Amino acid sequence: MSDRQAPYRGPNISPDGAQVAVAMQSPGGRNEDIWVIDVARGTHTRLTSDPATEVLPVWTPDGTRIAFSGSGGLYWMAANGSGGAEALTTSTTNGPLNFRRMGAGLRIRRMKRDR
Asked: Is 84 or 109 the better-scoring residue by pLDDT?
């Protein structure tokens, strides 16, 4: 699927089926970032690049944004990588599940805390 050789986690297919958002180990292997893979070309674009780990990418129904769980809460950003991540919540025990198809809103799930 991609020219990048790293483990993928939490793949989520875009609404048009042309792209897949994944959490993937960053170069150097210190954390995971959100990447978007173009299915037809097999290319990948890194969306996040801070030292924290970001996981659980979820597309908005129109395919323009991706929500994800990161250090300090839930975030979202433009799927094309323009602009930065915007905080949606500051809860570290919730993760994005999916967006409602009808109307606005992000469904979230409570995640287990590491012990």
From this structure: 84
User: Which residues face 13 on adjacent strands?
Assistant: 20
d(CA 47, CA 42): 16
Structure confidence at residue 2 as a pLDDT band (50, 70, 90):
very low
User: Domain containing 80: what range?
Assistant: 8-110
Residue for token pair 């993937």: 24
> Is residue 2 assigned to a domain?
no
Which residues are paired to 47 by β-bridges?
none
What is the pTM for the complete model shown?
0.80
**Residue 87 burial (C-beta neighbours within 10 Å; 0-12, 13-18, 19+):** exposed
Q: Give the model's pLDDT for residue 19.
A: 97
Q: Structural domain tally of the chain?
A: 1
The verdict on residue 68 lying in a domain is yes
